[in-house]
């Protein structure tokens, strides 16, 4: 009980301000200690916070890297879709009237590892998607080639530059619609042959398919005349054509599906 | 004399830890009342007079360190320990009186000394109980130390 009374006595004395010199005196001793302890505690706290933050920053960093990978793949996918969308719009805008009622199938192109002449390519659509042998392959109104072999999920396309290609075509710029046969030249160029000497043909004339061969749809653009060969000793004329597209560098095409 | 000097020394260390070190490290809520825990530990080793002396000295030191009115902390804690002695002597012993008195002292201490909250602050009461609980656990540790030294 005496300690309670002593506390009350101290409390009573403090009402008269007697404690102030005591506090001042004690402050000289305890303030540096309190300051040191507070700083030590702050140091420990900062240290632990630093390490806990380090772990969370690491976790965050890993998560961000993962998110970044996902986003990058989405960006690639979106770009691919955008490109595909643009291609479809272009195709729809450019298609000939004769093509409008025919179903088009978008296909990705890859090289044909078994063909060293680069006269053929492989597309990622096959019989499961409705592709058949002989289907024309186009891009816009440009003729790319025709399907020669069909597999369940891919097909082989013979390009117009293939030496095995033979297309009946005519000169749309001449009044008489000069006709000839377009032949591939080992994957490098195409030539228009079997032109009658009386026919007029000049550099820059546009050559399109006539459809008379029964393989290629009429009206598809093949290329421009780049050089005309007239030899008096030869009964027929020929011309080198510059293809409208670099067919070896195309990565997407449309297959004209037969109904 | 040696005993009282030892009490003063230990209480200075505890009061310094209680006022400067632990609040900075763990925040100011639900902290161990080291001075009170030491007093409880003396009670647990059946030294009630030493317990009263300890909390009185510790309370005065706390007042000096906190800059509160001299005798206020010592009055609250001495009264708390005295109440606990009465309960232990005339009613029952065990953990419950320690927790009850500890909670009351921590609650009053928070209201009067630290001036946190109103008299009907439920959160403050919960924090006072948590403080009493961990102070009691600390007093059990101190008891082991004191018992091994005596």
Automatic annotation (TrEMBL), chain A:
One of its GO terms (cellular component) is plasma membrane. Keywords: Cell shape, Coiled coil. Residues 71-98 form a coiled coil. Gene3D superfamilies: Rod shape-determining protein MreC, domain 1 (2.40.10.340), Rod shape-determining protein MreC, domain 2 (2.40.10.350). Residues 113-256 form the Rod shape-determining protein MreC beta-barrel core domain. Pfam families: MreC (PF04085). GO terms for biological process: regulation of cell shape. InterPro entries: Cell/Rod_1, Cell/Rod_MreC_2, MreC, MreC_beta-barrel_core. NCBIfam families: mreC. Belongs to the MreC family. This is Cell shape-determining protein MreC. It comes from candidate division WWE3 bacterium. The lineage of its organism: Bacteria, Katanobacteria.
UniProtKB/TrEMBL annotation, chain B:
Keywords: Membrane, Transmembrane, Transmembrane helix. The chain crosses the membrane at residues 7-26, 32-52, 64-85, 91-115, 122-142. It comes from the Bacteria. This is Rod shape-determining protein MreD. It comes from candidate division WWE3 bacterium.
């Amino acid at each position: 009980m005496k300690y309670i009374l002593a506390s009350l006595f101290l409390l009573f004395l403090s009402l008269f301000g007697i404690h102030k010199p005591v506090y001042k005196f004690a402050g000289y001793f305890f303030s540096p200690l309190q300051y040191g302890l507070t700083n030590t505690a702050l140091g420990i706290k900062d240290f632990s916070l630093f390490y806990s933050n380090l772990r969370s920053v690491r976790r965050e960093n890993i998560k961000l890297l993962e998110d970044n990978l996902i986003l990058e793949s989405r960006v690639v996918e979106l770009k691919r879709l955008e490109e595909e969308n643009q291609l479809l719009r272009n195709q729809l805008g450019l298609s000939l009237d004769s093509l409008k009622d025919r179903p088009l199938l978008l296909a990705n192109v890859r090289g044909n590892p078994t063909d060293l002449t680069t006269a053929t390519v492989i597309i990622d659509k096959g019989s499961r998607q409705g592709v058949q042998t002989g289907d024309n392959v186009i891009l816009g109104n440009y003729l790319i080639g025709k399907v020669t072999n069909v597999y369940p999920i891919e097909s082989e396309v013979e390009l117009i530059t293939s030496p095995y290609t033979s297309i009946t075509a005519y000169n749309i710029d001449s009044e008489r619609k000069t006709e000839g046969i377009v032949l591939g030249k080992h994957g490098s160029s195409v030539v228009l042959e079997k032109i009658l000497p009386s026919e007029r043909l000049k550099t820059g004339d546009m050559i399109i398919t006539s459809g008379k061969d029964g393989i290629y749809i009429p009206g598809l653009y093949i290329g421009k005349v780049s050089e005309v060969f007239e030899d008096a000793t030869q009964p027929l004329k020929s011309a080198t054509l510059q293809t409208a597209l670099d067919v070896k560098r195309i990565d997407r095409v449309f297959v004209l599906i037969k109904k | 004399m040696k005993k009282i000097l030892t009490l003063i020394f230990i209480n200075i260390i505890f009061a310094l830890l209680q006022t400067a070190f632990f609040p900075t490290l763990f925040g100011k809520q639900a902290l161990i009342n080291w001075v009170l825990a030491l007093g409880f530990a003396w009670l647990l080793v059946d030294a009630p007079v030493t317990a009263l002396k300890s909390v009185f000295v510790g309370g005065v030191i706390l007042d000096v360190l906190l800059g509160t009115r001299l005798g206020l902390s010592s009055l609250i804690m001495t009264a708390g320990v005295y109440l606990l002695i009465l309960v232990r002597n005339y009613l029952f012993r065990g953990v419950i009186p320690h927790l009850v008195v500890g909670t009351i002292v921590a609650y009053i201490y928070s209201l009067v000394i630290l001036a946190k909250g109103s008299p009907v602050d439920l959160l403050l009461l919960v924090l006072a109980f948590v403080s009493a609980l961990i102070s009691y656990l600390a007093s059990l540790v101190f008891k082991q130390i004191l018992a091994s030294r005596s």
